[in-house]
Amino acid sequence: MNLADSEIVTAILTDGGFVRAGDEASADVVLLNSCAVRENAEERLGNILTQLKGRKRRQRELVVGVLGCVPQFERERVFSDFPFVDFIVGPDNYRELAGIIENSREQKRLASLDYDQQETYAGIDPVRTGSISAFLPVMRGCNNYCAFCVVPVTRGRERSVGYERVLAEVAALAASGFREVTLLGQNVNSWRDAEKSLDFAGLLDGVSQAAPSMRIRFTTSHPKDISEALVKVIAARPNLCNHIHLPVQSGSSRMLDLMKRGHTREEYLDRIAMIRRHIPDAAITTDLIAGFCTETEEEHRETLSLMEAVGYDTAFMFHYSVRPGTWAARNLPDDVPEALKKRRLQEIIELQNAMSREIYRREIGKTVEVLAEAESRRSSLQLMGRTKTNRAVVFSRGEFNAGDTLLVKITGATSATLTGEAVS
Ligand code: SF4
Q1: Distance between CA atoms of 332 and 322, rounded to whole angstroms?
Q2: Contact 393, 408 (CB under 8 A)
Q3: Arithmetic mean of pLDDT, 244-262
Q4: Ligand 1 within 6 A of 149 CB?
Q5: Looking at ligand 1, which atom is closest to the CA of residue 149?
Q6: For residues 42 and 56, what is the distance between their CA atoms, to the nearest angstrom?
Q7: pTM above the 0.85 mark?
C-alpha cells in the first residue's frame, strides 16, 4: 500500500511542478513514506532519519518530510526525536503536499494529519514505477480493530473506490501494456459499492472481464470476509490468480479471541477447506505472530499444528511487538519474554521453511505458466517471473523478455524459488 501511495504522491508532486530526483543525494526535498505496522519498520525509519540529520546540518535548505502511518499516530515523537524534520503528513492528506513543501521553507513543524473518510485519491493518475505489474488500491482503511493492529488508527475507517472507476483504471492499465494488476486494500474483501449493490466477488468478476489479458491478484483478505461466492469467481475465471493470502496470526482460538480476529481456529480451517474444494491447486499464504500476549506453550503448538493442517506456501512471520495506540497496548500484558517469543518464532520459521521446500519440490517436472517480470539478479541470461500461484521462478530466458507470459519446465527448487527452462 505504501508503494502505491508513493506513486500517488509522485503524481501529486509532478502536477505541482516538482521533478523526481535521480537519487537521494541530489534531492532538495526528501520524503519518507513510513510504515507503523511493526516495530522494526519504525526502527528503520529512525535509522534513515538519523542519517539525514548530518546532511540537514550541512545543507540547511534541504527539506525533510515524513509521510504515512508513523506520524499519523506518533506525531509528537517524530518531532521530539527528530526536531529537524520540516513537516509530517498523514495518509489522507497527500493532496496538500505541494503547498506544505512550499510553506515549510517559512514555517517550521507543519503537520497535516486530519482523517478524511472520503479520500480515495480519485482522479489522480499514479506515476507508475514499473511497466508490467501495477498496484491498484481499491479501498482504504479498516473497520476491524484487531487488538494488535495500528491500521484503523493510522488509516481510519473503510472506504471503497467505486466499481466503474476501478474498472476504468484496470482497462487503462491493460491499454498501457501492463500484464498484471494487484487490487489492494487493508481488508480488500470488504470492498463494497453500495450504489450498485456489489461486493468484492462482483468487483473481481467485473475486473476479470474488463481485462481478460491481464493477471488479476488481490491482497489482503480477512478470513471472516472470504465468501464462497468470491472463491467460486476465482475458480471460474482463468485470469484471476489462484493465490489467496489469508492471514491467520495464530492457531489458537483463545489467542484469536484475544486478538479480536472475529473467527475461531475451526472457522478458519472451514474456510481453507472451502477454498480447496473449489480451487484444489490454490496456493495459500498467511501472516503469523509468535508470542502474542499471554500465549502459552500449548497455544504456540496449536499455531504449528494449524500450519501443518493448512500447508501454507509461504508466510510472513514475526514475533509480537506492542504497537502504541492499539487495544492490546492498552489492555493486555506483553508478558511473553523476548527470548521465548524468539524461540517460538524460530520454530514457526523452521516449520514453514520445511513445508515450503516440500511444496516447491513437488513442482519439479511440471510445466507451469510464468509471467516474466525482470532479468534475474544473477545473470542476464536468466529471467525471474511468477506463476499464477505467486511462486517465484528463475529460468534460462531463451528468446523471452520481461513482460512475456510463457511456459517453463521446472527443474529445481529451494524453499523460496523454483528454477527451470523456458519451453514455449
Ligand atoms: S483486519 Fe488487518 S488491517 Fe484491519 S485491524 Fe485487523 S490486522 Fe489490521
Answers
A1: 10
A2: yes
A3: 98
A4: yes
A5: 8
A6: 20
A7: yes
